[in-house]
Automatic annotation (TrEMBL):
GO BP term (any one): glycerol-3-phosphate metabolic process
CDD domains: EFh
Keywords for this protein: Calcium, FAD, Flavoprotein, Metal-binding, Mitochondrion, Oxidoreductase, Repeat, Transit peptide
Highest classification ranks of the organism: Eukaryota, Metazoa, Chordata, Craniata, Vertebrata
Organism from which the protein derives: Oncorhynchus tshawytscha
Primary residence: mitochondrion
Gene expressing this chain: GPD2
EC number assigned by the record: 1.1.5.3
Matches recorded under SUPFAM superfamilies: EF-hand, FAD-linked reductases, C-terminal domain, FAD/NAD(P)-binding domain
Record Pfam families: DAO (PF01266), DAO_C (PF16901), EF-hand_7 (PF13499)
Family as reported in the entry's similarity comment: Belongs to the FAD-dependent glycerol-3-phosphate dehydrogenase family.
Keyword match Ubl conjugation: no
Pathways per UniProt: Polyol metabolism; glycerol degradation
Gene3D superfamilies found in the cross-reference section: Alpha-glycerophosphate oxidase, cap domain, D-Amino Acid Oxidase, subunit A, domain 2, EF-hand, FAD/NAD(P)-binding domain
UniProt-recorded name of the protein: Glycerol-3-phosphate dehydrogenase, mitochondrial
Subcellular location(s) of the protein: Mitochondrion
Length: 691
């Protein structure tokens, strides 16, 4: 186990990150920790970092992966909350005002302590009524003033012409002008991981896939009451159980807050009122590279953000009551609501198609009622810290941006309640994993020293910061003239194979950990993620000595994750064997002609053999496995062939925008044009494909 040393306010840590096995050994072998944190999301990881940097002996357990829940499913903003400030002013609500002020302070700190994972993002507020201009301008200026010296950049007004120049996709009809203000943006899952890894480097014993079976209690001889003194834990991967003893246990389990509270006392009332927030990802061409959009008043009064992220466009969120589940599913109703709102703000020239949704996810926001309050039905706008009669410390509510101050408040309360020997919090300005040695131009050194592609080097620098050199050193030679090293997992994304190896050092235990949280491929494009899975499983299998059975299980579990939690299910439901065909007779005739170029024997269906024969005649060669995948996307009854009716259902769905960039449709059209013109077609790779 690594040792951290504290001298005054300066911390030193051994650079080698302990393995997960070493962390589990530390959890078992340590006689008693000062603090045991349950939950590895942003808040739980923040609590562990706050505790260990106060020189408290710290442990953290997470039953799934770090950031596997709500913390990886946010809007990716680091913000004070413009809408909260609006409510604070309109309702003269001092509590909301202070919440915004605190969040703006934390926004500034987070941008400073993890510069590689964060960036300033200008966000445009389009104005379509003259009276709204002074109203929103005043509100945004107050937002700047509340930030004070920590204001990122001053907001400003744009004319209609300038607004359309910066955001050409914007609807121009009745546009008066726009206001631009600044907030922060981050890679939420990797930020969460950076917090957890930083805690580990300072000496915290942290372990993912380690669940709490039940809380340990002992009778306090002085008070005569039962007190929580640790937890019985189970390694989810091996099934082994062990006790972790601690003077103080912190419940930082987000939406699952009540489950741990009831482990403490079955009589405890529920305080969590979960709300589901759905986001969608659509291609990057829907928004400018460096300008977001805010819809301050949707048709049902909610706020929708439309933001560039990882060279894609993210839109969301919804806010609907939901059941608590570890595997929330994005619903078609919510996806269509977001698409409808986006259409209201974009030019009619931009066709917003359902088929362009590349990924979709739902995150559960843990709204809470305050058990310390007499009015237990009222939703608490800020976070709450509660200490039970048995000493269990619960931190709940709040928002991503304020994770650090939430952790500070939690540890302050824990230190006081349990008489722990610790000073004040030291996490303001404490640099996170990867921040050291990062510079905005370090990617150039990665290109020059290792022979990486520029796009890959930029991605590694922004994802791993100073640790990117370690990932680059692990990269394999490509055998090409350029790039020299760095084999991509999929052609259109900058993720490389060595990231899978490095992910294991970052405690990745499953293929889902890699596609969802170490890389963000599953959140950006589910089809690309599915395509990368076999290679990811192969690499992990070699590193972790998985059996063939385990590899099959990993592949299956990851596909299930993409299907249900990342929107693949919603995508597949856009094209079914009951899909209505809405084609004109002329269109049916045109598609029949195209189909018969492949179905020479008039069988009424085509197979991979038929498609391969046509492609070879025009000198296009696609391997059999890829061809099978392409046909399987359209083979609705899964009988190994595509019937003419299935082809018509596909083309009808393409016409309606429910399906876009379908490989078979593009392939057959390109082949038909080539056969008609006797010209070699443009080679068709796997396209972006929507969900």
């Amino acid at each position: 186990m690594q040792i951290s040393i504290m001298t005054s306010d300066v911390f030193f840590s051994v650079p080698v990150l302990p393995s997960r096995q070493a962390q589990l050994t530390a959890l078992r072998a340590t006689q008693e920790f000062d603090v045991l944190v349950v939950g590895g999301g942003a808040t739980g990881s923040g609590c562990a970092l706050d505790a260990v940097t106060r020189d408290l002996k710290t442990a953290l357990v997470e039953r799934d992966d770090f950031s596997s829940g709500t913390s990886s499913r946010s809007t990716k903003l680091i913000h004070g909350g413009v809408r909260y400030l609006q409510k604070a002013i309109v309702k003269l609500d001092y509590e909301q005002y202070m919440m915004v002020k605190e969040a703006l302070h934390e926004r500034s700190n987070l941008l400073n302590i993890a510069p590689h994972l964060t960036a300033l993002l200008p966000i445009m507020l389009p104005i379509y009524k003259w009276w709204q201009l002074p109203y929103y301008w005043a509100g945004i200026k107050i937002y700047d003033l509340v930030a004070g010296a920590q204001c990122l950049k001053s907001s400003y007004i744009l004319t209609k012409t300038k607004a359309l120049e910066l955001f050409p996709m914007l609807k121009r009809d009745k546009l008066v002008g726009a206001i631009v203000y600044y907030d922060g943006q981050h890679n939420d899952a990797r930020m969460n991981l950076a917090i957890a890894l930083t805690a580990a480097r300072y000496g915290a014993a942290i372990a993912n896939y380690t669940e709490v079976v039940h809380l340990l209690k002992r009778v306090d001889p002085q008070m005569g009451k039962e007190r929580v003194c640790g937890a019985r834990c189970r390694d989810v991967i091996t099934g082994q159980e062990f006790d972790v003893r601690a003077k103080c246990v912190i419940n930082a389990t987000g939406p699952f807050t009540d489950a741990l509270r009831k482990m403490d006392d079955q009589k405890n009332p529920n305080i969590c009122q979960p709300s589901a927030g759905v986001h969608i990802v659509i291609p990057g061409y829907y928004s400018p590279d460096n300008m977001g959009l805010l819809d301050p008043a949707t048709s049902d009064g909610r706020v929708i953000f439309f933001l560039p992220w990882e060279k894609m466009t993210i839109a969301g969120t919804t806010d609907t009551p939901t059941e608590i589940t570890p595997h929330p599913i994005p619903m078609e109703e919510d996806i269509n609501f977001i698409l409808t709102e986006v259409r209201n703000y974009l030019s009619p020239d931009v066709e917003v198609r359902r088929g362009d949704v590349l990924a979709a996810w739902s995150g559960i926001r843990p709204l809470v009622t305050n058990p310390n309050s007499k009015d237990t039905q009222s939703i608490c706008r800020n976070h709450i810290v509660h200490i039970s009669d048995s000493g269990l410390v619960t931190i709940a509510g709040g928002k991503w941006t304020t994770y650090r101050s939430m952790a500070e408040d939690t540890l302050d309360a824990a230190v006081k309640a349990h008489n722990l020997s610790a000073g004040p919090s030291k996490t303001v300005g404490l640099m996170l994993e990867g921040a050291k040695d990062w510079t905005p131009t370090m990617y150039i050194r990665l290109v020059q020293d290792y022979g990486l592609e520029v796009e890959v080097a930029q991605h590694l620098a922004s994802s791993y910061g100073g640790r990117a050199y370690e990932v680059a050193k692990m990269a394999h030679v490509t055998g090409k003239r350029w790039p020299i090293v760095g084999k991509r997992l999929v052609s259109e994304f900058p993720y490389i194979e060595s990231e899978v190896q490095y992910a294991i050092k970052e405690y990745a235990c499953t293929a889902i950990d890699v596609i969802a949280r170490r890389t963000r491929l599953g959140f950006l494009n589910v089809q690309a993620a599915e395509e990368a899975l076999p290679r990811i499983v192969d690499i992990m299998g070699k590193q972790l000595t998985w059996s063939e059975q385990r590899k099959r299980e990993e592949l299956s579990a990851a596909k299930q994750f993409l299907y249900y939690e990342m929107g693949y299910k919603a995508r597949s439901e856009q094209l079914t064997d009951t899909s209505e065909i809405t084609l004109t007779p002329a269109e049916v005739g045109r598609y029949m002609k195209r189909f018969h170029k492949f179905d020479k024997e008039n069988k009424g269906f085509i197979t991979t053999v038929d498609v391969q024969r046509v492609l070879e005649s025009i000198n296009v060669y696609i391997d059999a496995d890829t061809l099978h995948e392409i046909l399987n996307e359209v083979d609705l009854n899964k009988n190994g062939q595509v019937e003419f009716n299935e082809f018509l259902q596909l083309m009808s769905a393409v016409k309606k925008g429910q399906v876009s960039a379908n490989r078979l449709a593009i392939l057959m059209k390109t082949a038909e044009q080539s056969l008609d013109q006797t010209e070699k077609p443009v080679s068709v790779d796997r396209s972006g494909g929507g969900v």
